[in-house]
């Protein structure tokens, strides 16, 4: 079952919090780079309880799936699907000019992503279309 728009927005907000925390807590230079890496790779996590899920998606019970393979997203899927948002995040690392570029390029990209998410029947944003992925309610794992 496809994930709802509100659950995806909340998951993205949680992930944004992770990015900001990494950028703020880790040493200057390293923090923003780690935040950027998380923003583009997180949907391909396959460690422990994570299966094609970022922290936000895990907490919201969502999963990114490659629609062609019918399998959880891999790092390659994550990089492709998060490239539009990752581009905006990358520019925020650069003092002054980066924030200007973020405002001029990143904000319109985010608006396009949200508009597609709300208007397209499949609830795919630009990154999902590029990577051939979708966000679904994560299947429950059998315990025992």
What does this entry look like structurally?
This protein has helices at residues 5-25, 30-41, 55-60, 75-91, 97-119, 126-131, and strands spanning 62-66, 71-72, 133-137. The protein has one domain. The longest helix is centred in the last third of the chain and has 23 residues, at 97-119. It has a three-stranded antiparallel beta sheet with strand order 2-1-3. It is mainly alpha-helical and 144 residues long. Helix content is 59%, strand content 8%. The radius of gyration is 15 Å and the shape is globular.
**In percent terms, what proportion of residues is strand?**
5-15%
Overall structural class, as computed from helix and strand content, comes to mainly alpha
End-to-end Cα distance, whole Å, is: 24 Å
Number of E-state strands: 3
Largest sheet: 3 strands, antiparallel
**Whole-number mean pLDDT:** 85
**Strand neighbour order, sheet with most strands:** 2-1-3
CA gyration radius, whole angstroms: 15 Å
Write down the overall geometry. Answer: globular
Kindly state the percentage of residues in helix.
55-70%
Oligomer: single chain
Number of domains: 1
Lay out the secondary structure.
Elements: H1 5-25, H2 30-41, H3 55-60, E1 62-66, E2 71-72, H4 75-91, H5 97-119, H6 126-131, E3 133-137
Antiparallel strand pairs: 1-2, 1-3
Task: Considering the chains and any ligands shown, give keywords for the structure.
6 helices, globular, 59% helix, mainly alpha, 144 residues, 3-stranded antiparallel sheet, 8% strand
Describe the structure concisely for a colleague.
The chain is mainly α and 144 residues long. It contains 6 helices and 3 strands.
């Amino acid at each position: 079952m496809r994930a709802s728009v509100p659950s995806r927005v909340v998951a993205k907000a949680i992930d944004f919090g992770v990015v900001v925390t990494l950028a703020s807590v880790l040493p200057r230079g390293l923090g923003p780079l780690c935040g950027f890496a998380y923003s583009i790779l997180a949907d391909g996590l396959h460690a422990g309880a994570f299966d094609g899920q970022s922290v936000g998606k895990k907490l919201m019970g969502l999963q990114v799936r490659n629609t062609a393979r019918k399998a959880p997203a891999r790092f390659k899927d994550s990089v492709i699907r998060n490239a539009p948002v990752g581009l905006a995040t990358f520019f925020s690392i650069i003092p002054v000019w980066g924030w200007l570029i973020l405002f001029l390029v990143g904000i319109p990209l985010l608006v396009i992503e949200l508009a597609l998410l709300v208007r397209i029947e499949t609830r795919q944003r630009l990154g999902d279309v590029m990577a051939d992925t979708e966000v679904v309610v994560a299947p429950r794992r059998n315990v025992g």
